[in-house]
Amino acid sequence: MPEPRFFLRPTLKNAALLGIVVALGATAWIVWQSSLPVEITPAEGFNVEPVLESHFVNDIGIADIDGDGDDDIFAMNHSAGGSILLNDGRGYFGANALSELALDQQRDLPGFHAQQRAGVPEGAGVFISYVATGLLFDYREAEDAKVLRLSLHLPWRAALITDGDVTATRSSGDDSTSLELELGPGGRAFVEPQPPPSDGFPISVRLPTELPLDQVRIGPKRVHPPSHGFEFRLKDRHGMAWLDVNADGIADPYISRGGARGRMASVDPEANDQWYISHRGRFADRAGERGVAKQGCPGRQVQWIDADADGGLELYLVCGRHRGEGAEDVNQHYALVRSPEPRLRKLQPRPALAPVGTALWVQLMGDRRPELLYSTRSSIRLYRADGDYPDPVELASQPRRLRAGSGVLRPADRDNDGDADVAVISTTRNWLLNNNGDRIEAIPAEDLGLPDTSLTGSWADFNGDGLLDLHLLPQGVFLQQADGRFRSTGDLGIAPQSNANNARLTWFDADGDGDLDALMAFEVCLPGILCEAHRRALKVVKRALASVLSIDTYLHFAAAKQWHVMLARNTRGRPRVQRLDLRAIGNPVGVGARVRVQSGPLVRLLTVGEAEGSHYSHGHYSLYVATPNGGDKTSMTIEWPDGETQSVVVDGSPRLRIEQSSAAASKR
Hints:
By secondary structure, the protein is mainly beta. The chain has four helices and 48 strands. Strands 6, 7, 8, 10, 13 and 15 form a six-stranded mixed beta sheet that branches. Strand 33 and strand 34 (469-473) form a beta hairpin.
């Protein structure tokens, strides 16, 4: 009988060879998959066109920013460049108006933000850019130029990588770094706050006084600093809530900001969220003087609500972690006070919620006060509007998954029974919360023919049959059938699905022609399921190899990351819809109002805010009324937030604006 070792050796050898083959095959598959073009799957009657590209999009949405009645596009991107794209009235969007409206990350440094690439310096001087995750100093001078000496300080630990003629002297504390840098011509230094990505604000820089400021060029616009000593203060913006608070016809954005990884109280105790109020076509940040108190809250989702159903407005802000140095443990709640000037008055949050999640205030049952739905990675809970919001009802428990997320909550009367239902769409699990009037039933999405998980989604009547369909990304449009189940069409999805790592989606009438168009944003990455793990692994590799890598290699030694924002323009002319904008007393966008639409035997409930497609923002308050027969035999009853009702006849005009207690409705 042969000895066991003779059998063991070839087995181990075969196993090793098999492992090598599998690894090579997996690598080849990833490379092949990554090389595939990512695109929107076609749908008959829709033309897909690019709107913008960015290396990062945290949130994107719709708001009538300039008050001309046409919906504009905004994007918030942490500390990367944001976008304000104004509608020209025909559904086409112009150049980025962020700087024009004075909404830059830093007003004294227009255009300064975290860039994907630094660009090629032209001419001589000092070029300073925030590239990806750190600050890049690039000294370009004549051969006989003197050594450039500069200093900087940041309240964070920092990694330093240098190329060329650079000498550095470092002094570091437990959570701070000071650097004295000497750069010869051609020398470059990259300073990265740790752990990445951290913006490192505030970063103080001191340049030699003999250096002319016109030889210092900062950011993509190559602007000059205001003095030889200045600070970089990137804002880490997460969400925007738009509302015209001073009645000048321009929507004013409240911008939620991050919490500096729980260290806000120590690194920048004066930091606050931003509340920009317009004045003569430009915005000024009034947060500190108008009642905003951040108190370390790592702001995420922000929205205007009417929790008391009294017609007044409140601001609700979801905070992003359980605890952190100087941070409150609960979400934040403010009342809007309009007179004598707009300001916010802090309220005790009801209910007091700490876990980071997604909030939806919507009337589901009982009186006119809205219930609060709150989705986290572990559960979906309902807080009833009964007294002071008693203990919640847990509607569903979420499974543990690698890519767990709290997702988005999309309300709509999907079964035309006069009650709002809610789609819960997330990378953890998709659900449909079916409202039976006196109770909410959580139905797993797969029981209705829908995917188990998705990146985002929105309701829309895609084929004009009177039934709401569900558009999910990356999968595409699912048509609702008469029995309440859904059928996949594959239209307006993302292909290949595995290369889409994140997405946003909003339906709106971009060009005012009476049919709905889709604004779609998606992140292209290595196959999505591997993308986050790939990034985390590369962070470890980068940190270990920082001392031996060049700056360019270091900055590109990461997973590909690119967001595409596309508009799927509806050219079919159907289904026909009428845009409805409501203005309640003391509430210019009708938050809390509901509309019951009757068209023949069909009755549907519409809720202001149900068209919102953002993840963390708020600004899309319009409602869309289906008018299959040009509005014939279609009537509406508006239930205003204070309980007053008003009847309106739909006449088929593309847009209808209605003010509370006004018999006349303005048409456009």
